[in-house]
## 1
Amino acid sequence: MSLERKDEHDHEGWMKERDLTPVETVYLTTLMWLDKRLRIVDYLELLEDLYYKINMQMPKSHTEQYNLDNKFWYWYPLYALGSFSTIAYVVAAISGALLGFYYSPATTGDPSAAYNSITFIMTDLRFGFFLRSLHRWSAQVMVAAVFLHMLRVYFTGAYKEPRELNWIIGIVLISLTMVFGYTGYLLPWDQLAFWAGQIGVEMALSVPLAGEWVAQLLFGGFTLSQSTLQRMYILHVFFLPFITTALIAIHVGIVWMQGIAEPH
Amino acid sequence: MSENDTTTDGHETATDGGQEAAADGSGIVAPDDETPTWSERKERTQGLSQLTYEYFERARREDQDLRTESDYVERDVLAFPVWPHEMIRNLALTSFFTGMIIFLSAALPPHIGAPANPSQTPAVILPDWYLYWSFGLLKLGPLNPELSLLGGKKLMADRTYGVVANLVVVGFIAIVPFLNKGAARRPVEQPFWAAVGVFGVIFAATISALSVKNLVPMDSHLLFDLTFLLPFVGGFLTYAVLKSMREGYMFELNRRYYRLRPPK
């Protein structure tokens, strides 16, 4: 027995008497080192609390209670549409980031620099055609999946009572998906893109009261120009990804908390 | 802390506020029993936070009551659990579909049109397919009423009418959960709302066809009439079929339900 004071905070003494494996020792030493500086235990407590909250004991689900799996299994692929659109979104994000390495949003030159960079990607860049193709197809598939997802939710009545808020977030998300598609459609700056942009400006100008303001804000003027392309580009690669990713996280988080609305 | 209290009880004057306590911080203990616990601190707060606290207490009690009076087998979440059940199913399905995206993009690379040319309007101007419905809504000019009150003039320009129609459609979809309440989930249980859904799906298809009326081999007046006729036909048919199915279907459903869970 030594004269040195040993109380419950003597972590090193505690470690010595525990006879730990090297892995455990390293783990505990790191944990203590961090905890002494950042007081992680407080946050761990929060996590623990959270763990018990999400694993709250609740009654058995309807499907399990009445053993309805045998009756509903063939509907389940429709329940994967939400995941599927998220996966398509991730694929589009990765391929889009890679495309961004080669694309320049400029209307200067004839044909424009934007058009030239698309031509470069499609013809000269190794696997460039595949990259652009992947981006485009995953975007198409995402829109289709989101639309079908909405139909599934509608026809199974999954938007009802605790889930109204998520339905509205879903409406915002499907709109954002379409805006994503529209802004991306303009980026190659070919004939279709240009004239689709023209229709966009006219639609913006037709908005009651705020029309001109909206056109200025989104398209940078009443006719298409460099600023239109640049705004579409920044919307497509900066604003929309942030907003959409955050909303998807909230959307999925709410589904996680509430569980899947199962068939009744 | 209780162990610590008993050991330091004997020489409390030495540890409480003494120099020894300051050395390693281990002597920091609550000075007496009057120190409020965290729940007591919460209870002492005023105003809105007090109300929030009270409501949380009530909600917790409500959960507890529901759990104790429930005769269900206890399980993790109320609805179908996202993890692991739904997630594993979805991973299997989505990996298949991701393979499909990759296959499609390798097989069908996107097309690039002619470069943008503001001085030459192409014969066909189109957005991507998923925006056809919105494009079609811009062509509702013939439905814009000429009000006799305004001397045969229209209340708003045709294109404003089209943009407002977009907002009306999206707005209606957004408020569905607040219009259709109740526990009914299956289409047979709610023929009206199923009919509304079928109306919407068919309308989305027909209005998309209307938006590309130049390309549809059909008289454009006939197409315009069909655009609004077909959704109603589809809706009425759905309603009629589901309404006539309903009685037998609900009988089966109820019989199944009461056989599994006989009334007390």
## 2
Amino acid sequence: MTDIVLYFATMIGIYTIAAIGLNFQYGIAGLINFGVVGFFAIGAYTSGLLTLAGAPVWAGLLAGSLVAGMVSALIALPTQRLNVHYWAITTVGLAEVIRLILLNEDWLTRGSFGLVGIPRPLDAIVPAGYQTAAFCALVWALAVICYLALRLLVSSPFGRVLKAVREENDLALSLGKPVFSIKVRALAIGGLLIGLAGALYAHYLTFISPADFLPTVTIIMWAMVMIGGRGNLAASVVGVAVVTVFLNSTRFLKDVIALDPQMIASLRMVVIGLLIMAIVVYRPDGLFPERKKEFADGDTPAGR
Amino acid sequence: MIRRSILKAFALSAISLPMFLTTPAVQAQDAQTVDIGVLLSMTGSLGRGGNNVVLGMQTALEEVNALSPSRQFRLVIEDDESSPQAAMDGIRKLVDVDKVPVVLGTVGSATTIPTASYSLSKNIAHVGLTASSPDVRSLGKGYFSIIATDEVMGAALAKFAMEDTGKKKVGIIVANDAYGVGLAKRMQEAVAANGGEVVSEVRYEAGQPDYRAELQRLFSPRPEIVLAVSWGDNARLLTKQAHELGLMQTVQGAWYQPYPAEIVNACIAEACEDVKGLDIAADRGERFQQLRAALETRVGSDVVIDWFIGVGYDAVWVTALAVDLANSAEPAAISAALPKAFEIYRGVSDADMSVDADGIQRNQEYGSFVIKAGKLEPYTAN
Amino acid sequence: MNLTQILINSLVRASELGLIAMGVTLVFSLLRFANFAHGELALIGAYLAYALSAAGLDLWLAIPLGAVATGFIAVAIDKALFARVRTAPGLVLLVASMGLSLFLKNVVGAIWGTKSYSFEGSLARSFSFAGGFVTSTQVIILVVSVIAMLCFHLLLSHTRLGRAMRALADDSELARARGIRVEAIISKVWFIVGSYAALGGALIGLETVISLELGYSVILPAFAAAVLGGIGSVHGAMLGALIIGLAENIVLAIDWSFLPATSGPLYIDTGYKLAVAFLVMVAVLILRPRGLFQGTSGD
């Protein structure tokens, strides 16, 4: 029983890092990234390939998040008109292209066979029996560091400019703020986190293949962020936990009541879709909206 | 005292199964119940395969439970949703919560490798079903496979096609997944080894609504033989569009397919007329006929036994046999007894099911078949 | 490379895609958001048409009926979801449409399951035409689609509704001030784009198979066609669909060895087929950010 609790705790930790990154892009910078899974995959494959080639795990994690961050910045190129809709469409397409590259460039990625035997960090130094707990602790330590770093960033001058850009694009433009480069930086920072989460995912499961990175993952991450609340980074963890528990609840429910697996699989996603729509309509800022004064612009001091 | 009656049925293999099914059930009140963990794609892209595996498994389960009144088996089935992440959730539940002593699963390589690694790390034997990627060899002790890996089918199909037609120019079209690409690699090697030439190799993405561009590419260097890896809807669309584009006609029935039982009901009869292929259950022997009879009463007389059904059926039988051999429901004992069980067992998917040191099938016999007027018929190569 | 065959395939693809891309661009120009659920309207249209024909209705009644029903569903969706967030910022609408897309696809999945369906039980009759093959189904698809597009063109240019739509797309404030009943027009537009997408989906299903992936498989090409034609331009979207259709079929068929620094025949891996439409779109966005035809809105 401890094993499965640790397993879900670790998974929630990994997705929390990704959700914080996505929430930063969406909630703080006002950018739509419908291709989250692509950046997640980049982080996973970069770190997986490097460590399989002999690099230490820490270098893999670092490289995984850096490459994902860089690609995030690159998607800005075709969408210089700053149109949020074009960003969204481009990210969907990019995630698809990334998946196709993973699938087709066998010489690099082993295609559909996936990467086998990705090393787990800590396994060498932690005594047997405590390894899963140690990995879980590592994930959560990284999650907390990411959260604190982003909070610092949000309350910095850069964070205030970001918010200005989000709220009043035209106003920020007319004030002479370099809106485009600010958005690119915000995308890159979010991408770093999503890539790091992907890298951790690879090292935790030790096997990844393109089948891990289907478009559904993107939608599930969006549901996590929407439930947590737009712009409220800390609450993302609640969204992640709620969605993870919900998606797995039917596994345990079906042992009690007989349920048709096909119907259940569809209904699970119907509920996730309904939830996203209901939040947009009734609670546009999520169940735990960002506290306005915490991010107040101008000279109002942040804090209470 | 638990009677090891399943073992007896096979030890005295001269005696056919139906005789045992008629033996009166003995006292069932103090029966031991053994859970068999099953991890399968019930939904998602591999859902159709997974559901057929379950059909085979349930048929086998009824038979072994009837034979073994003092030890009853139960399937604990988890859906892997054809996704590695959901598969990991599922295996954790089976191993950590349900505490099953043995796991059967899954149907795809991408879900089998990570989940089997986990079962094995907990010292629980993992019986792979239709995952054919050679990577399963790296899983190590405790992993067993009901089917052979890609090299066997890939080589056999290419050789069969070339001998049957006497032609050399081969086009290959496969699904872009571990199953299709793995087979393509082996087919290429086998074509070269038999003195032929692969003139085109095309991958398609399963589940797409249109394959005309892929087919054009496949046929543009004018192959004389096509080796196609497809199933269900993909097979239907490929043969239909190849026919409508006038391309199918250019190879005149030299379209070969692994496991044609998987496609026979999905395809339009006219489009897949004369499609040939290799399938399991080479001899269509006694065991196969027993399964057929059982399935006819279960789902109707038009049932086509494909490899998923056969593999599911064999997996439960061989596992039950191992439990019987070990006379124990302890994970370590089952794991230790499985190689012996594979050796004794005479299966539907293959008569000789003995495994090598990696737990993989030593050999695999296939039968050759042809589709005529929408029905699968035995076929003798020229 | 068989040029005739490529042209036939591209034309058929374009006529299906155009019906869907047209709606994407119309919704964008009137309601100012990229509707990620648009592909699912095509999905619903295909399944409804299938269900009606499976219930015994003639195909040529089932497809239009399915389209009309999908039109009403689109109006209902607008009333239930998009109307409530009409004034919300674009990115909120985007997220709503993404949730809607997941919802619709899985409602269809819950009703019809994940196996796929086909209209016909036999092969379409195909005949040789100038060195290529064309099936009777493809001819019908072309004719139906051209008639549908023509009807829409007439509606846009010769009716009061068309004029009101154009006015609304140009400037919704002004349109309101001139006494146009905005909400009524929006409902009519949803009905039209819903039924056109449904028709496109049913035609795709007629030619190939009806599966749950239909919606997702057309949405990127449809967006690409709309962007290519200049978002907001219906005629541009139709032309964009033609270009995407051609690109999808030509890029894979071309031997790229004429490029410098290549040796031997060089074909693009068919595994990248799904990326072609998107890459064409990205190239256009970089080179001509306003689309190939400099679309304004609703022309």
## 3
Amino acid sequence: MAGLIVIGLRLLIWLLLSADLETANVAIGLAVALALPLPRRHRQLPVSALGRSLWASLKAIPLAYREALALLIRRPGREVEELQPVEYRPGSPVAALVFLDVFRITITPLTIALGMDGPGRSYRVHRLESHHPLPQEPGR
Amino acid sequence: MTLAPVFNLLSGLLLALGLLFWFAGTWPMLGRASYLTKLHYLGVADTLGSALMLLGLLLRFNREWPLLLLALLSLVVWNTIFGYVLAVCSQARPRS
């Protein structure tokens, strides 16, 4: 099922690129989308996990604009590095979900993903706290 | 009654807001903030500002919507992941 979503996204990109809904063009796009290899882990991926991740990424876009306004209006506070747990862990990380998580974290201007910690249980996230004044650094 | 004037007005607002995000996000990059802080601002300017501009263009040139929508998707995904790559590359610790 998750494979179907990936194939659907490929077909969507083809149709947007060609801007042509003729039968022959759709058939070519479908053939290309099906012919491109699908990683085996995609086939095992539950559609609910992919759907949740996609929805969370979409929800991050309005949040990103709210955070952008907050960042532009207020002076950014201190920088912190924190760990954010990976939600879906079937063993080792699934590329599509990691991609969506990294996208969701990084598109919001107050947070940037810095990669995963060693065992892949959480993401290292760099966060700007906009609500705190910059700490005074003595001796500088 | 046609909706064209409303779309044009909305498009102008989105383009202006996008330009505002561009300048407001670019200005802090000239300062002395840390590299990662500058990357946070880069996200405001090049991802969110440019996305607003493309939305504005989408309302103004709606006959070209497939290509503008593709440009919008590519821009949002590419810029975000590029910011992530720059952030990861700035880290001294080895990745596993």
